[in-house]
Amino acid sequence: MKITGVELRRVAMPLVAPFRTSFGTETERDVLLVRVVTPEGEGWGECVAMSDPLYSSEYVDGAAEVLRRFLVPALAALPGAGAHAAERALAPFKGHRMAKAALLTAVLDAELRATGTSFADFLGAARDRVPCGVSVGIMDSVPRLLDAVAGYVDEGYVRVKLKIEPGWDVEPVRAVRERFGDDLLLQVDANAAYTLADAPHLARLDEFGLLLVEQPLPEDDLVQHAALARRLRTPVCLDESIESARDAAAAISLGACSIINVKPGRVGGYLEARRIHDLCRANGVAVWCGGMLETGLGRAANLALAALPGFTLPGDTSGSRRYYATDVTEPFVLDDGHLAVPTGPGLGVDPLPDVLAEVTTSTRWLPV
Ligand SMILES: O=C(O)CCC(=O)N[C@@H](C(=O)O)c1ccccc1
């Protein structure tokens, strides 16, 4: 399967409501989509990089540039690009895992569509539907938070994740626990907003029976996360700290976490995401599938990953309407707290041409 060219497409996706985290507030996603074209057809990938380098060092303009100048040209030398060969071709370039993930996902999608294989079958899915959690941003007030959580619980989400930061943590968590009871699966995500000095304060979250506390400390603090984990009853989960299976191995061996949030975009694609899954499963570490506000294209691939056997905790695989009034694919709609795993070839979904045309802000064709 020789790649004949790659299209970089930017789409503007307004969010249904502002989404506030400890590092900023999103109101619209400027998404970079990658389309790989071959004589047999095409494949799609979605870059999860945000507009600004606030979640990680990557940002969408930078991802587009590194794809244009380095990553796409590296595929030209390949006799025929399968995903594994393409991953090896991109390995010499340091970092830029979100840009790599978008291109490798598009190559994998093209390869799987050509062979009639779904992402789920290729990755080794064990389920045909996955339980869905929802991520709730930092709100202006506790009453507003409780209203938002009530709406998601009514929609059927099986797990609630609350964004926290210093000054917005114990009180909102207490309020949610008191309002919705002990049976609600509840976890928090700090996005690296605390330091080890906050350990006594973070230990106050132990009384709420949380599933986990996600990324409490900065992403390069594995040793300090291990020190914190020894002082909390609540399990520590890592997100930003884990950019590869090697990072996962180091975090596990240091005791820096007991759960990992796997985001294919953060770790360089679905092949590496599966390696992390396999490593964690072999070490008794639970994983769940995180989200980066993906459109239906990225969401479809994430659902296939979330169906693997080691994904034992509900992920941030919410329905399309959690973020977008109109998705670029047919919307993913929650059914009894679950989403069905796509079964068609490749991603199993396609962009809706009219919607894609409507939200596209630019396209760039890169011959290979
Ligand atoms: O459901 C989703 O897709 C978003 C889940 C979520 O909270 N993502 C967070 C995160 O830190 O994991 C995030 C939001 C915006 C940007 C980056 C990351």
Automatic annotation (TrEMBL):
Keyword Magnesium: yes
Domain Mandelate racemase/muconate lactonizing enzyme C-terminal residues, every copy: 142-235
Organism: Sphaerisporangium rhizosphaerae
Protein name as annotated: o-succinylbenzoate synthase
Classification via Pfam families: MR_MLE_C (PF13378), MR_MLE_N (PF02746)
SMART domains given in the database record: MR_MLE
Reported cofactor(s): a divalent metal cation
UniProt keyword terms in alphabetical order: Lyase, Magnesium, Metal-binding
NCBIfam families to which the protein is assigned, alphabetical: menC_lowGC_arch
